[in-house]
Write a structure and sequence with these properties.
The complex is a heterodimer of chains A (about 650) and B (about 300). Chain A has helices spanning about 5, 10-35, 40-45, 50-80, 90-125, 135-150, 180-210, 220-255, 265-300, 305-320, 335-350, 350-365, 375-395, 400-405, 410-440, 445-470, 485-515, 555-565, 585-600, 605-625, 635-645, and strands spanning about 575-580, 630. With about 650 residues, chain A is an all-alpha fold. The chains are: A mainly alpha (about 650), B alpha+beta (about 300).
Chain lengths: ~650, ~300
């Protein structure tokens, strides 16, 4: 292979990116060295097994990926603003929409939510960490290096270009030569393994580590949604693992599972992909529902209306999510009986979802609604998501779907559910839990600016797309002819996208601004919260709770505040706390995964095998590891708690 | 605070307004809502039926949402108000479970009916015309086995006659979509799917691929020209007499990745290759043909 094939060349945008990447790396290395922060980085972050720090790292990566995916989106909107635009060529456009979709779902939405889960769930259930802290670190680093591997494709080797769905035979060697789709297969596999382990970890954490008194039906709604999401991950991700493995064999070793020759079957890929893919979209929507439930209840100062029905409906949605996948290809010609079945199961999802919407509305009713930034995002979710939801029901009607399928109507629909659902939830969640993560609040004024810009921009961008779809504009077109009547709406959509971009910039500026000037949260309970995470300090000590709290009711902390003076710790109650030790091994194993993956992408099997040996070595070392953690002495807890109280 | 409320209201009025503007401004461009044949009409009716329910849901939810927000905002005058501790309301929850169930049923029944109906020709008193459609990178090839003619990137059909498009692909998957005549179906390698369309009147209708198939996918357009039966017969005769013959070499050239213009031939490539029968997915050919036969009788002729 020549160097000119190894590095992507010929595009001024790419050269600019190359320069930016090199400068950023030099900058980071310089800052770390100049301020003598290497040891800090290693001790505090790279080797940490603390769920709060891992959560923060997840969210930092997710925000970076939101930036990357957002730039992709703006490039696409620029290209589509007017007919016959020459800004991007077909190949470049195809790569960009592929990476946009893949990154937004797998490297933005999921890690953002998993980050919030990491920070919040152990605190909500009164635990000191997740069930398997070491595994949790491994999950994160596998995700991180999977994402890194995927992202370097655009400067080294070339990006995947067959869509985030990577349908065969288009994604086969025959029609997609080059390494782009190898990156897709291998990078998603590595981060997928991490996600699967996260699912197992949180299932066990929630089932086994709840504080005394917290029965299943006293769990906060966010924790409930995370529990169900974990089950979805555990059932759905193995399908993706297998599908990606078969794809890897097809692309690297000449097997013919999905190819056009020797009995390969491209429809098999579509089925496997969506058997994972549909539960996947619920993996990113259920925790979002949980976040909205927490925030709506807190800022309405009211218990969640119809808690049991809410639990029932997420279980129902999770069950249905496994029997609807064919609605992604009604047009494959499966026959009317099959299509009718999947039509009805898909529409049925509207029933539990509708129940949830009305329960949120009735939580608000008779409440005392405080319009904080977190609450604005949560409130905006309701009408916007309903628009996405009803158009989803329209798409579920097989006979009508033949007219919407793969058009901009579909694009509008899934952006309305994914942005108004998941992205709004991420913004709501980060504003809500930010004081818990960092000890200071995000600025409300800037937060509201970002909200209005983004929310209005979102509607201006995506609402016209419903009509573009009905006008016959199909997804993934890199250009279109004049005279179809598509131009005005495309111009409008681009304006909306720019507003969303400005909203995102304001949000990022808010992070910087608040770090410098933000209001400190001394109480640990800035919103008058209802659940246990607000009972402890902001940010919580490494061990979360000096004494594990007793739970007597749903909204455990609210009950404590109502029946007494909240969560109080007497020094004589303190006992030594057992905590897990840090370990650098998850980080190092994941680096080995990265190199093994890189070797596979380029078919450099020597590199892949050497890296695989390191992975196995890491697993063996872990098996003989008898470090079972350490104890924090009572004296040290006293010191930490006094310091925290003095701060208050 | 007051600020936010005003903006919120403005935002509410924005949605229906834009809807109105769009519908009045460029309705003839909204091809899906401009049916030119019975298939598209059936889908149009279903779409309109569903839009009615959806607007109803949107109005109910938006009204409740606005009412609750306005009434229960935190204001200086309700500073002492403490919300009640209510857990839920079984009756209400049954109501808002039952109403969606009814709506889903009201949508599901016509959906299932239409889904079955679309697999059959809209009318049974005329013999349907069969046209084989092959998608290739990045063009559409139309073969008329009964007339023994072939076209590329355009297809002529007689008005008021059901046309059975038998779809397959010589490469990546595409989706055959002529919005004014009816919804789409995939064209896949080694597979044959069938889409029945019919045009009410003579006219020209744009078709395109709706499924991404690589570099020049955006240019995979074709024109469907509906003609009177007489005109169509005349055109067929003319093609049979004047158009050149297609041979394997020429066909191989057409299949090469790239864009081509319109072409017309006085025979079909089905003489030597049917891409739907290449790369058998189901073992030996005999068995496959049996299955295929079953599928055919399943799909139509009822």
């Amino acid at each position: 292979m020549k160097w000119s094939e190894f590095f992507v060349t010929g595009e001024p945008l790419i050269y600019a990116a190359d320069v930016a990447i090199v400068l950023t790396i030099i900058g980071i290395v310089f800052v770390l060295t100049y301020f003598k922060k290497w040891k800090w980085l290693w001790d505090e972050w790279l080797t940490t097994v603390d769920h709060k720090k891992i959560g923060i790292m997840y969210i930092i990566c997710a925000v970076l990926m939101l930036f990357r995916g957002g730039v992709d989106a703006l490039l696409m909107r620029a290209q589509l603003t007017v007919p016959n635009m020459k800004f991007l060529d077909a190949q470049h456009y195809n790569e960009i929409f592929t990476t946009h979709g893949t990154i937004m779902i797998l490297f933005m939405a999921m890690p953002f939510l998993i980050g919030l889960m990491n920070i919040v769930v152990p605190l909500q259930i009164g635990a000191r960490d997740v069930a398997f802290p070491y595994l949790n670190a491994l999950s994160f680093w596998l995700f991180f290096f999977g994402a890194l591997l995927f992202n370097i494709s655009f400067v080294i080797g070339g990006s995947p270009d067959a869509g985030w769905t990577a349908y065969f035979p288009l994604a086969s060697n025959e029609f997609s030569p080059g390494v782009g789709n190898n990156y897709y297969a291998v990078a998603l596999q590595i981060s997928g393994i991490g996600t699967l382990m996260t699912g197992i970890n949180f299932l066990v954490t929630i089932l086994k580590m709840r504080a005394p008194g917290m029965t299943l039906m006293r769990m906060p709604m966010f924790t409930w949604t995370v529990l169900i999401t974990s089950v979805l991950i555990i059932f759905a991700f193995p399908v993706f693992t297998v599908a990606l493995a078969l794809m890897t064999f097809d692309r690297l070793f000449g097997t013919q599972f999905f190819s056009m020759a020797n009995g390969g079957m491209s429809m098999l890929w579509a089925n496997l992909f969506w058997i994972w893919g549909h539960p996947e979209v619920y993996i990113v929507i259920l925790p979002s529902f949980g976040i909205f439930s927490e925030i709506v209840s807190t800022f309405a100062r009211k218990r969640l209306f119809g808690y049991k029905a809410m639990v029932g409906s997420i279980v129902g949605i999770a069950f249905l999510s496994f029997i609807v996948w064919v609605h992604h290809f009604f047009t494959m010609g499966a026959g009317p009986a099959v299509n009718s079945f999947f039509s009805i199961t898909t529409m049925a999802i509207a029933i539990p979802t509708g129940v949830k919407v009305f329960n949120w509305l009735f939580t608000l009713r008779k409440g005392k609604i405080r319009l904080t930034t977190a609450m604005l995002w949560s409130l905006a979710f309701i009408p916007n998501f309903v628009i996405g939801g009803v158009t989803g029901v329209m798409l579920a009607m097989a006979a009508a779907d033949y007219q919407y399928h793969n058009s901009y109507f579909l694009i509008a629909h899934f952006h309305y559910v994914l942005i108004a659902g998941t992205v709004f939830a991420c913004f709501a969640g980060i504003h809500y839990w930010y004081p818990k993560m960092f000890g200071h609040l995000l600025n409300e004024h800037l937060g509201k600016w970002a909200f209005w810009l983004f929310m209005i921009g979102f509607n201006i961008c995506f609402f016209p797309m419903y009509f573009l779809g009905l006008m016959g504009m199909t997804r993934r077109m890199y250009t279109y002819a004049a005279g179809l009547g598509w131009t005005p709406l495309n111009v409008v959509a681009t304006i909306g996208a720019v507003l969303m971009g400005i909203g995102f910039i304001v949000f990022c500026y808010n992070i910087y601004y608040s770090a410098r000037y933000g209001e400190r949260d001394m109480t640990g309970d800035p919103w008058d919260g209802r659940t246990l995470e607000w009972a402890t300090a902001s940010p919580p000590a490494h061990y979360n709770f000096p004494v594990v709290p007793e739970v007597t009711d749903l909204d455990a902390y609210w009950a404590m505040k109502k029946n007494g003076s909240g969560y109080e710790v007497k020094e004589e109650q303190l006992e030594p706390i057992h905590m897990p030790s840090n370990s650098g091994r998850p980080f190092l194993i994941s680096i080995a995964f990265f190199f093994a993956g890189f070797g596979l992408v380029f078919k450099w099997f020597t590199l892949a095998i050497i890296a695989a040996i390191f992975i196995i070595l890491g697993l063996i070392l872990r098996s003989f590891d008898d470090d079972d953690g350490y104890y924090i002495s009572v004296d040290e807890i006293k010191r930490t708690e006094r310091l925290a109280r003095k701060g208050a | 605070m007051k600020h936010g409320k005003q903006r919120g209201r403005k935002w509410f009025s924005w949605l229906p307004l834009s809807l109105l503007l769009l519908l009045s401004g460029c309705s003839e461009n909204i091809v899906v809502l401009n049916p030119k044949g019975p298939v598209a009409k059936e889908q149009y009716d279903l779409i309109m039926w569903s839009i009615g329910f959806m607007l109803f849901i949107i109005v109910v939810v938006f009204a409740l949402f606005a009412a609750v927000l306005i009434r229960y905002r935190e204001k200086p005058e309700n500073a002492d108000y403490e919300p009640p501790d209510e857990e839920g309301n079984t009756l209400l929850e049954i109501v808002w479970t039952a109403i969606p169930v009814i709506i889903v049923a009201a949508l599901a029944i016509p959906t299932v009916k239409s889904t079955f109906a679309l697999e059959k020709p809209p009318r049974h008193d005329v013999k349907p015309l069969t046209i084989h459609v092959t998608s290739a990178n990045w063009k559409w090839i139309f073969s008329y086995p009964e007339q023994n003619i072939e076209t590329v990137n355009y297809v002529n059909i007689p008005e008021d006659v059901p046309v059975k498009f038998k779809l397959t692909s010589a490469g990546p998957m595409n989706s055959f979509w002529v919005p004014e005549l009816g919804g789409q179906k995939y064209a896949m390698d080694g597979m044959e799917t069938q889409l029945i369309l019919q045009a009410d009147h003579p006219g020209s209708y744009m078709g395109r691929s709706a499924n991404f198939s690589g570099k020049q996918f955006a240019h995979m357009e074709f024109e469907v020209v509906a003609q009177t039966q007489d005109e169509f017969d005349k055109w067929v005769k003319e093609v049979q007499q004047t158009a050149p013959k297609l041979n394997k070499e020429k066909y191989g050239e057409i299949l090469k990745p790239g864009l081509v213009g319109r072409m017309t031939f006085s025979n079909t490539h089905l003489e030597w290759v049917d891409h739907a029968k290449q790369n058998s997915h189901h073992g030996d050919d005999e068995k496959r043909n049996d299955r295929h036969g079953d599928m055919e009788s399943d799909h139509y002729e009822h």
